[in-house]
Design goal:
By secondary structure, this protein is mostly beta strands. It is built from no helices and eleven strands. It is globular, with a radius of gyration of 13 Å.
Length: 124
């Protein structure tokens, strides 16, 4: 059974760069039919899609992040990585990775596979 697990720092200082990894087990990320997304949920707010990547390297980014977001894939480790630059306290959220046939993921549906999420706090 495919599983996704997020990992990375739980605390980041303002203006620094956040890097999170999503490790996929039970299935190769080298699939023509799947996209691999990062989604976050700030406290008390809705899910916010950040971007996605296909194994070929094609990426799709939410322009609301104003180019602060970068997503990359490492086939050898079966991982994909989120990089978020110039973080502020507004970036405090639970961050999720997900597998979907959709490029843009804003709502959980049964056909998608999500990690359990990781809490990231931006604070001095």
């Amino acid at each position: 059974q495919v599983q996704l697990q997020e990992s990375g720092p739980g605390l980041v200082r303002p203006s620094q760069t956040l890097s999170l990894r999503c490790t996929v087990s039970g299935e190769s990320i080298g699939s023509q039919y799947h996209y691999w997304s990062w989604i976050r949920q700030p406290p008390g707010k809705d899910l916010e899609w950040m971007g996605s990547i296909h194994w070929s390297g094609s990426t799709y980014d939410n322009p609301s992040f104003k180019s602060r977001t970068s997503i990359s894939v490492d086939m050898s480790k079966n991982q994909f990585t989120l990089t978020l630059r110039s973080v502020t306290p507004k970036d405090t959220a639970v961050y999720y990775c997900a597998r979907s046939t959709r490029k843009i993921v804003t709502i959980k549906i049964s056909d998608d596979v999500w990690g359990q999420g990781t809490q990231v706090t931006v604070s001095a």
